[in-house]
Amino acid sequence: MKTRWTDKIDLVLPHNEYPRPQMARDLWQNLNGRFQYAITDFTYKIPEEFDGDITVPFAVESELSGVGKRVSANQILWYKKEFSVNPEFSGKRVLLHFDAVDWYSIVYLNGKKLGEHKGGYMPFSFDITDYICDVNTLILRVYDPTDSGMQPRGKQSEKSHGFWYTSTTGIWKTVWLECVDDIYIKNIKILPDIDSQCVSIATELSSSAEIEAVVKEGEKTVFEGKISDNEKIKIENCRLWSPEDPFLYDVEIKISEGGKCTDKVKSYFGMRKYSIGKDDDGLPRLMLNNKPYFQRGLLDQGYWCDGGLTPPCDEAVVFDIQSMKDLGFNMLRKHIKIESARWYYHCDRLGMIVWQDMVSGIDKLNMTVVGALPNIGVTRLKDDNYAFFGRTDKRFRDDYEKELHEMIDYLYNCTCIGCWVPFNEAWGQFDAKRIGEEVKAHDPSRIVDHASGWHDQSGPELKSVHRYVVPVTLPKADGRPFVLSEYGGLSYIIPEHSFNAQKSFGYNINYKSKEKLTEAYRKMHEKQIIPLVKKGLCATVYTQLSDVEFEINGMFTYDREILKIDAQTVKDINSKLVL
User: Of 79, 97, 127, 161, which one has the fewest beta carbons inside 10 Å?
Assistant: First the structure.
């Protein structure tokens, strides 16, 4: 299948936008584009010959990669690329960045092993200064057991079926270089505080240096001067960020040694606050900037018919976000996937709140626990029974917690993220109450949905309910805000725009026309959803933004060509989901 962007992409250098908008440097080099690839039996020996060309950053399984092959758990995927370093990097230290490689990577440059990395969703990098020459040979060895392993993998499956999707193996986000001096900025951490009208900026350096900051509100400079490595900067009469007014402050951080500037990065932040409080009737509510705020959301799984987990281009990312905002939604739940930094940047600037799931991992899914029992009302099984929940191996429980906290640190500066979701529908769930409390302690500035859907452990901070097929009803109050964190799933198939017309399915009735789907959507909301808002409902997450492979319950078809539901009806419904 193709999207409207498939044939327009520059395959010589795809995804050529700067990959990290919240810590941007002027000088960088994109390594995307043509690599060589090989699929071999399980071995550590670099192949002498490669199978052909692959277009990075599209995964080997995808159409846009130019390959379209599956890699089994008994095979190794190899990459090879020759490149020269930008001459402007001369005299600097050179960093090699991989924004995501699924799953276990070993990286070689010019015959030297740089290092290795486990984890399919997080960025990693190497200092390659001491290894580079005129023409460099990069080799990458990737092993990915997909669903035969217990690593975080989300809905990836070696054999796609139902709500299990085509696997992603190897590089699926941008590969790039940048240069820095010996003393450089390693990281910045930004925390707005609208109550004190200030912003905290913590700067991590490779070595001690003098730090300066400039903060701008549009063209107006609101701060300029030297700061400590953990500074609070006053922002008088700050302009608040919201989906209705997604205003962002620009910030530039510069460090100097002996009067000479050694590094400079550009970033931004939004002055906003996510919290929980009570409305005038004493009901617990989600708050934005200290006011009750209803969050109207969609499940967004981030899959593309041509690129798999990788969107075809930056324009396609903007299309998804802006299209949903145009329909009146103000929130997306990024479901069991961690996107590239640019996706969150677009949510920041366009004004879309994000609920961020952690990617699930599991030994073997127990359908009794995750499917049968919840549908007959058994939704509070204790999750310290690791075998029952498919989490018997402590090594992988530890890996999950490590990657969860890495995700939070990686996305910490994103203005749009308002809620962390460690577990979904008991997929590999364990110790959710403890983990939810630890997430809240790690980042008190966001809401936590410790166990979305079912097997609630009375943890922080939401009464989080999923409803498909059966009517939505008000749960028993327990002091936590009530959110409908998945519901709907109304289905309609358009065969010529479907992944597989014969085997497609939805979570609810499959309607036969746009008109019938629209009427069902309207009735469900008017009878079940809208009346609950005044009784305590605080947020909704409708399933879903687009069809995904066999699933046909999207607002859009999988190729994003057709909006399957009447736009004005959706806008009218959303206009009533307010506080």
Answer: 161
Angle, helix 567-576 to helix 514-524, in steps of 10 degrees:
0
Tell me whether strands 101-102 and 33-41 are parallel, antiparallel or unpaired.
Answer: unpaired
- pLDDT tens sequence across 458-467: 999 999 999 9
61 neighbors 168 (Cβ within 8 angstroms): yes
Q: For 501-511, give one letter per residue: b (16+ CB within 10 A) or e.
A: eeebebbbeeb
User: What is the C-alpha to C-alpha distance for residues 485 and 353, in angstroms, rounded to an integer?
Assistant: 14
CA nearest neighbour of 159 among 57, 39, 71, 261? 71
Report residue 373 as tokens. Answer: 């029992």
Of how many residues is the chain composed?
Answer: 579
Q: Whole-angstrom Cα distance, residue 492 to residue 512? A: 6
Amino acid in position 555: M
The distance from CA 231 to its chain's CA centroid, rounded to whole angstroms, is 29
- Most distant CA atoms of the chain, gap in Å: 72
**Residue 41 burial class via C-beta count within 10 angstroms: exposed 0-12, middle 13-18, buried 19 and up:** exposed
Q: What is the pTM of this model?
A: 0.97
- DSSP-derived secondary structure for 489-523: --EE--GGG-S-TTT-B-SS-EESSHHHHHHHHHH
Domains delineated in the chain: 31-180 (2.60.120.260), 185-269 (2.60.40.10), 274-489+541-549 (3.20.20.80)
- Distances from the Cα of 147 to the Cα of 72, 140, 162, 512, angstroms: 10, 22, 14, 34
Q: How would you classify residue 24: left for phi > 0, otherwise alpha for psi between -120 and 50, otherwise beta?
A: beta
pLDDT digits (tens, 9 = 90+) for 503-555: 888 887 789 999 999 999 999 999 999 999 999 999 999 999 999 999 999 99
| Angle of the 314-326 helix axis to the 341-350 helix axis, nearest 10 | 40
- Distance (Å) of CA 395 to CA 267, 286, 361, 398, 547: 36, 36, 12, 5, 35
Q: Which residues 6+ apart lie within 8 Å of 323 measured at CB?
A: 556, 563
CA distance 508 to 471: 11
- Residues 445, 450, 455: CA angle, nearest 5 degrees: 165
Q: What secondary structure letter does DSSP report for 526? A: I
Q: What values do phi and psi take at 419, rounded to 5?
A: -155, 135
